[in-house]
Amino acid sequence: MEGLSLPHNDALVLSIPIQQKLVHRVLVDQGSSAEILYYLAFKALGLLRDWLSSVDAPLVGFTGIPVYPLGTIVLSVFAGSVQLDVEFIVVSSPSPYNAILGRNWLYGMKAVASMLYQGVWFIGEFGRQKTIRGDQTASKKCFVNFIRDNNKAKKVQWVEIPELPKESLSSEDVNESFQGDITLEMKV
Fold it and tell me: What PANTHER family does the record point to (predicted)?
């Protein structure tokens, strides 16, 4: 864990060449089933909307709010000497990131990603292990920018709930497996 700022819970954010141009603020998200390119980055790469293939279905994340893509495009992503053609879904929505590389890219690269160790490991040229290091400073900036700019972000307040005396509750009122487990409540 040499060179890391510890302790941390930073997202894995890195810089990687896409279409032979270095793109910063790329989130590696093992939970994402799609690779996303945000429209501002799409334009910065010099790409044209005419090159997009149409998409019929919206993207739906854990919020349940649908995001309608502008289209898809296949772009070359370079990791060291390894080039992988990746289908990106292009969206025009606010994001602190320029792109998201998800499971498809990781599987295609036969790569292993670690947020804890802030890196992506893969086999490069001549069978040698290669590493792309994450950028913790960029990760923190992306997080702060998201919180600052997201007008839907709500303040979270933690409230401690005093433990009730066990004799005041009957076994019918409390599921035995949960007794004593809940000490905090989140209000949004």
Answer: GAG-PRO-LIKE PROTEIN, OS08G0508500 PROTEIN
List CB contacts of 111: < 8 A, sequence separation 6 or more.
79, 105, 120, 121, 122
d(CA 91, CA 72): 9
Q: For residue range 75-118, what is the model confidence (pLDDT) as tens digits? A: 999 998 899 999 999 999 988 999 999 999 999 999 999 988 99
Most confident range, picked from 96-100, 149-153, 167-171? 96-100
**Quick one: how far is CA 96 from the chain centroid?**
10
**Amino acid type, 77:** V
**What is the SS3 string spanning 40-101?**
HHHHHCCCCHHHCECCCCCEECCCCCEECCCEEEEEEEEECCEEEEEEEEEECCCCCCCEEE
In CATH, what class is 13-149?
mainly beta
Residues paired with 3 in a beta bridge: none
Q: How is residue 165 annotated by DSSP?
A: P
